[in-house]
Amino acid sequence: MLIPVILSGGAGTRLWPVSREGHPKPFMKLADGESLLQKTYKRAAAVAEGGEILTVTNRDYYFMSKDEFDRDGVAKRHTGIYLLEPMGRNTAPAVALAALHVAERHGRDAIMLILAADHLIKDQPGFALAVIKAAELAQQNQLVTFGIVPTAPETGFGYIEAGETFGPGQRVIRFVEKPDKATAEEYLAAGNFLWNSGMFCLKAGVILDELAHHAPQVAEASNACWATLRDQSASGITMLEIPSESFAKVPDISIDYAIMERATNVAVIPASFGWSDIGSWTAISELAEPDQDNNRATGTAVFVDTANTFVQSEDRLVAAVGLDNLLIIDTPDALLVAHADKVQDVKQVVARLKSQDHEAYKLHRTVARPWGTYTVLEQGTNFKIKRIEVRPRRKLSLQMHHHRSEHWIVVSGIAKVTNGDEEMFVRANESTYIPAGCSHRLENPGMLDLVMIEVQSGEYLGEDDIVRFNDQYGRACT
């Protein structure tokens, strides 16, 4: 039995302004319209043998993750299981808790295929073949990793030094950190160094034993955390919520540092299946076809006397004149212009925005919610205008605002509105008014999306001015 375990965590700060804390890298849409997480689910489904796919992710990303899982029929063929973290604690705690779940549900000999949610793999048959080889070694109680045969002296990846042949793979001599350019060139010339992909294949029982031996603090804290897990399963979906208090006590450490660099039973499968960790805008740009001047674009762009430049634009035409070696990333509320040699420094922009508590580090103009989305169309002193879209059979929490009133105008669909003690149906071209301090709820009872315009008025219009009385999505209520 092989159970894919998808780790869907980090914010992907080097891919700002598209990747943000509230909508991180795994949910980024590529040019073909699919997100990285959606591609990972499809990849996992193609090799899963137990009919299950386990996702370890933040509690705030559960509904977005489930929506991606439900696409392309993956949910019809496999059971989705979600292990929900209250905060990020790195990969070792995530793997430990996933292993405890798999061992309890399927036994210690069940094999886990650990995948990152934000990788891109172009050669699916090649990936499936590598998984078969890895599973063969995992059956022999090896901790198996996938090493990517390098094509260049890359300084942005860690490396694996591969040793003697061992079955369909090789023994691992050592893991090494991201090198400088000269060292990376030495690794490439040596021929036995591989890029560390961060993907693993191993038995649940073996990794639990290795954690107990090499990282006892992680093992003990994870076991204590597992004992306090809350089962929030409903409607055929297994949803296990990790309590904040116990999870905060688990050491924040990667599985590489905790186990892989210390264990002696580690093997690697050398692979060339078109892998990319999509770790920077350079990696994104390489997905687009270049023109004769090595310019690339996603969206609509015009290049004049310009070379080696990448443009990504969601909504509008971007013209580049007299430029060389630049990245231009245009979103509705933020624009990034960067030299291509400085792509790793984009995360410093996010750190600066976060220190200033600027909303752009966290949210897009369009924000996903469990019930649908809202888009801020315009805002100014004492007013904000939103476009709200509620999916069929979904509803917002029963809530109240202290500082703002709201005027709702239905554009399409039908809305069921709770306004104080009154319930009513509001149809297209009709409206209703919610005064400040009044409890209210919006619901879509229909089979089509509900689209409406919300006009907010008040002295304070922050998203934190909300008191929830009842919420079907498990968010905090009074």
Report on this structure.
The chain has 478 residues and is of the alpha/beta class. It folds into three domains: 2-276, Spore Coat Polysaccharide Biosynthesis Protein SpsA, Chain A, CATH 3.90.550; 281-346, no CATH class; 366-470, Jelly Rolls (Sandwich), CATH 2.60.120.10. It is built from twelve helices and 30 strands. It has a six-stranded antiparallel beta sheet, with no helix packed on it. Strands 6-9-7-8-12 form a five-stranded mixed β-barrel. A four-stranded mixed beta sheet has the order 14-16-18-19. Strand 25 and strand 26 (422-427) form a beta hairpin. The two termini are 44 Å apart. The model has no long low-confidence stretch (mean pLDDT 93).
How big a fraction of the residues is strand? Answer: 25-35%
- Main sheet makeup: 6 strands, antiparallel
In CATH, what is the homologous superfamily of the largest domain?
A: Spore Coat Polysaccharide Biosynthesis Protein SpsA, Chain A
What multimeric state do the chains show?
single chain
CATH architecture identity of the largest domain:
Alpha-Beta Complex
Average pLDDT across residues?
93
Look up the CATH topology of the largest domain.
Spore Coat Polysaccharide Biosynthesis Protein SpsA, Chain A
Give the strand line-up of the largest sheet: 20-21-22-29-24-27
Instruction: Specify Rg, calculated over alpha carbons.
Output: 24 Å
Low-pLDDT runs of 5+ residues are none
Write down the domain tally: 3
Global geometry: globular
Helical segment count: 12
In whole angstroms, the N-to-C terminal distance is 44 Å
CATH class of the largest domain: Alpha Beta
Total DSSP E strands: 30
* Fraction of residues in helix: 10-25%
Overall structural class, as computed from helix and strand content, comes to: alpha/beta
